[in-house]
Design goal:
The protein is of the alpha+beta class. It folds into two domains: 12-86; 95-179, Immunoglobulin-like, CATH 2.60.40.4070. The chain has helices at residues 17-36, 46-84, and strands spanning 5-8, 91-94, 98-100, 105-108, 117-123, 129-135, 142-144, 157-167, 170-176, 178-189, 192-197, 202-204, 210-212. Strands 1, 2, 4, 7, 10, 11, 12 and 13 form an eight-stranded mixed beta sheet that branches. Strands 3, 5, 6, 8 and 9 form a five-stranded antiparallel beta sheet that branches. A hairpin with a 2-residue loop joins strand 8 and strand 9 (170-176). The longest helix has 39 residues, at 46-84. The two termini are 18 Å apart.
């Protein structure tokens, strides 16, 4: 993918002023009909009319408030998209699947504190383990070249990486492996901003833990 972009798929807020006006007209008609058909010997107390008007007015104000909040939410979303525009073209670090096409991938291992051995585990899109290799017990960046269990390069595709931390023969923990990938697009969705990485891999912006320049 060689086209970077920022896009938004947020749906516009529904416009309800016409509906409110229609409901208010209907309410007035019903109130007028109620007055015309009330029992002349037992008329409705004027205080009841005041309560009905106040109730409808409160509902109307609540609807308008909700519309205002929705509009503000969309504006904040657009503001966030504008800020995300600066991210496009940079490399993001996240615990997302990686796209392997022959180019080395920079990993960010985080082995358990008591570990004396760390193993990178690679699974393909079907969930099968296709690669295992020992990596340094360190938080320093590690370059993965896409080697499989046999030592041959894995075919192009999407892979999920995890890190197994051992102390002797005891498995202490299995954690997702963070990696760096170039941001190709920032996309707005109803649930928040999503970043599209190389290979079309999507990750919520909230899961990005670091950014770095590609230059």
């Amino acid at each position: 993918m060689d086209v970077s972009s920022v896009s938004s798929t947020a749906t516009p807020a529904a416009t309800a002023p016409a509906a409110i006006s229609s409901d208010f007209t209907t309410f007035l008609k019903m109130l007028t009909t109620q007055m015309q058909n009330q029992d002349p010997l037992n008329p409705i107390d004027s205080a009841d009319y005041a309560v009905q008007l106040a109730t409808f007015s409160g509902v109307e104000q609540s609807v308008k408030t909700n519309q205002l909040l929705e509009s503000l939410g969309q504006q904040f979303g657009l503001l966030g998209m504008a800020q995300m525009a600066g991210w496009v073209g940079q490399e993001a670090r996240a615990d997302a699947p990686v796209w392997m096409d022959g180019d080395p991938v920079t990993l960010a291992p985080n082995p358990a504190a008591a570990a004396d051995r760390a193993v990178l585990v690679v699974k393909n899109a079907s969930g099968d383990v296709v690669g295992r290799e020992d990596v340094p017990v360190s938080t320093d960046p590690y370059i993965w070249h896409g080697d499989g269990i046999t030592g041959a390069n894995l075919p192009d595709g999407k892979y999920t990486l995890s890190l197994e931390s051992y102390r002797g023969e005891e498995l202490l923990a299995t954690t997702p492996m963070e990696s760096y990938a170039k941001i190709m697009e920032a996309r707005g969705t109803p649930s928040g901003t999503v970043l599209v990485l190389e290979g079309g891999i999507e990750v919520p912006a909230s899961r990005i833990t670091a950014l770095r320049s590609t230059t």
